[in-house]
Each structure stands twice: as structure tokens, then as C-alpha cells.
Amino acid sequence: MDARLQGRHVLITGAASGIGRATAELFARHGARLALLDRDAAAVREVARQFDAFHAAIDVADEALVRAAVRDAAQAMDDTIDAVVNSAGMAIPAPLADTRLEDWNRVLAVNLTGPFLLCREALPWLRRAEGSTIVNVSSGSALLPVGMAISSYVASKSGLIALTKALASELGPQIRANAVCPGAVDTPLLPDVLRVKAQDPAQSPYALKRIATPEEIAQAILYLTSSESSYVTGTALAVDGGRTFH
């Protein structure tokens, strides 16, 4: 296997499970040094142990914890961070009429404020490195909302695309910023009703009639982090089995 990330120093949030974990595993195979962040202390420790990687258990919406974790991650990787992958995310499904303000705020804090904080705190290191990249994991529902009561999630992930485009404009040409917009992915976050519908040939809105594996989304994140995407910035890449192309 080509070591497409040899010499890169990558900070990944949501690294204990799902897309974040698959990204950590794939990046490690491609030679990257890793710093892994997640709320689940035991799980992120177990993942980090596989790669002798720095790890920290944090809430990405906590400014002080993010600042300390980014500083410690940089110190653990020879004072270098040249790539950030914001994969931490959450959803609290509820109809609009039943959505509590505290739940709305929490979803936006994790899915939108968290990536903002990570990017801001990592910026001094990203600016010192060459070819630095940011990849934010948004959602296909930000491109085409699903028929479910998840307005807070859709709003947060749509905002993340806008943040990504703003970062690409502000931080270029030195730093590239892109978003990945997955469709239904086989992770614990996927509601059972979507899991069943996505794989039903008669009902599925997906051209490929199946859900994605976390590894398939990680491959897209690898592309956007590697030099192979050197002329790509400010994009929201749909990796959704054909749900949004129409």
C-alpha cells in the first residue's frame, strides 16, 4: 500500500467509533501520525493503543478542553499538526414542536461549534505547515434533508458546510478546507428506520440500494487530506450512494 500520508500529523475527533475510527485506522495504514479525540475515554484509549497515538477524552464543545487537547496533541506530534478531521457528531431526533432549546443548542454545539473550536485552536500549527488540510464530516441531509424530524441535526450540518466554505476562502491558499457529506452509514448513529429503508429496493432513495460502510467514507476523507486533492478546496463532497444527485 502506498503511504499517502507519510509524514503527516493528523488530529481526528470522534475517533472512537464509526467514521472517525475508520478514518484513524485508514490513515494509520497510510503512514500518518495521529492524535485521537473522543468523549468515550475507554474507547478512544483502545483505538489509540493500536497505533501508539496520542489520545484525549474531551467534549468538543468545551472551549477550554479543546484548547488543552490541541496543545497537548501538537506537543505529542513533534509540535506539528497539518491536518484536522472533524468527525465528532450527534443527533437528538424530535419533531420541531417537541424540540427543546437545550437539545437544539447541544446538537449545534457538538456538530458546528466543535469543529469551529478545533479549527481555531489548531490554526497556529496548520499555518506553520505546508499543504495543511481541514476535512469536516457534514451529512447528505445537509444537501437534501431526509423526511425525518431532525431539524437541529440538518441545521448544524448545513452550517458546517457553510463554515467549511468560509474557511476555504479565508485560509487559502495555504490551507485547504473541504466537507464530506455521507449518506446512510452503518454506524450506531443511523436510525433503524433509515437502515431498513435505504436497503429496500422498492423504497430506497439511494441509487446503489445500500448503506455505506464507515471505511467507504474514510476513503473520501483520505482523498481530501492527501495531496491527490491538491486543487480541491471549499467543496462539499457527497458520498451518498446517489441519494442527492437528482
Provide structural commentary.
- The structure is a single chain.
- 44% of the residues lie in helices and 15% in strands.
- With 246 residues, it is α/β, with parallel strands linked by helices.
- The protein has one domain: NAD(P)-binding Rossmann-like Domain (Rossmann fold, 3-Layer(aba) Sandwich), CATH 3.40.50.
- The protein has a 7-stranded parallel β-sheet with strand order 3-2-1-4-5-6-7, with helices on both faces.
- Strand 4, helix 4 and strand 5 form a beta-alpha-beta unit.
- Helix 1 packs across helix 8, helix 3 packs parallel to helix 4 and helix 4 packs parallel to helix 6.
- The mean pLDDT is 94.
Summarize the structure.
By secondary structure, the protein is of the alpha/beta class.
In terms of topology, how is this protein built?
Blueprint lengths: L8 E5 L4 H12 L3 E6 L2 H11 L2 E4 L5 H14 L6 E4 L14 H28 L3 E6 L2 H4 L7 H21 L3 E8 L9 H7 L15 H12 L10 E4 L7
Parallel strand pairs: 1-2, 1-4, 2-3, 4-5, 5-6, 6-7
